[in-house]
Amino acid sequence: MVERMTQPGSTAPTVLDARRGPPVCSKHPGLAAQWRCLKCGLRQCADCPKKVVIQGKRVPTCSGCSSVFHLEKLTDQDLDPQLFRTLSAGALKYPLSGSGPLMLALSLIISLGVFFTQDLIFANYVWFGAITLYLLAYGANVFHSSSRGEEHPPDWPEMNDPFRTVILPVSCFIIATLAAFGPALLLYTYLPSAWRLIAVPIALIGAYFWPMLMVATSLWRSLMVINPRFIIKSIRDTQSAYIKTASTTISLLALILYLERLLIELNLLSFLGIYLVIFYLLMVQMRLLGVFYHAQREELRWFNES
Q1: Residue pLDDT, tens place only, 190-212
Q2: CA 144 to chain CA centroid, nearest Å
Q3: Which residue from 33, 67, 72, 270 has the highest number of Cβ atoms inside 10 Å of its Cβ?
């Protein structure tokens, strides 16, 4: 027994412009996608899936691979044609939502420890290094939760498996940063002083690639995605959304690095204030990278989700 599915509350499928509207049906480009198959990735309009009766229950099946129990109903967020703009517009408010204020407050407590141990050279290096890793791991949590479409900041990384929750995600950030800026750094370090200006355009190119490298290495967790052809294709597939993301996140990175230089020889209140701003900017930066992927995953097609 087979029955065609229709969108609840409507008598006809929704027709839209595939160039401007939300995700469209893979088989009928003029119709809005209402379903997505988690097995083959096919997007389907309201009329595509069929229902088959299994043990007395009507179950939707994929019209492409006939898979049962793998159809996912697209949410209102998935159907938003301005999803990236909608999500990125709230990035500045994101650290103040949900548990965000608590996370910011806890970062102040952590910064107190950094401040009062900075005169102890060995303790400072160990403590500051550990805290930096942990805060970056929290930034990775922000990225991953945002890439899944979650609206509020996540909790701190759990320490029951530090390799998975801290070392691995931070390693991905380090690899992405070295891949982006490493060539320019090597040129600047080893070229004669008269030739060091060559490193400047190389660094600018690396800065343009850095956001996509961050997103790719964090999600794939593989060195293979450092391939320039893969990165360039991904940038080309996302076009204007990537340009906006790259320009904003690189500006935030430059601001964070500048503020970190100011942390030296400050009084307590100034130190805490700047530390709080740095942590806030890190949350905004990782939020933007996460919502970029969430909004552009249909265009990127990295994991056969679209």
Answers
A1: 999 889 999 999 999 999 999 99
A2: 6
A3: 33
User: What's the pLDDT score for residue 154?
Assistant: 93
* Tokens 């906006």 found at: 244
The answer, yes or no, to whether residue 117 has pLDDT greater than 50, is yes
234-259 burial, b at 16+ Cβ within 10 Å, e below that, comes to: bbeebeebbebbbebbbebbeebeee
Nearest to 245 by CA among 302, 291, 297: 291
Q: Long-range contacts of range 177-185, CB-CB < 8 Å, 24 or more positions apart?
A: 177/210, 177/213, 177/214, 179/206, 179/209, 179/213, 179/217, 179/226, 180/206, 180/207, 180/209, 180/210, 180/213, 181/206, 181/207, 181/210, 182/206
As a whole number, mean pLDDT of residues 38-49 equals 77
Collapse the DSSP code of 211 into the 3-class scheme (helix H, G, I; strand E, B; otherwise coil) and give the result: helix
Which pLDDT belongs to residue 213? 97
> pLDDT at position 18, please?
36
- Residue 3 is predicted with a pLDDT of 36
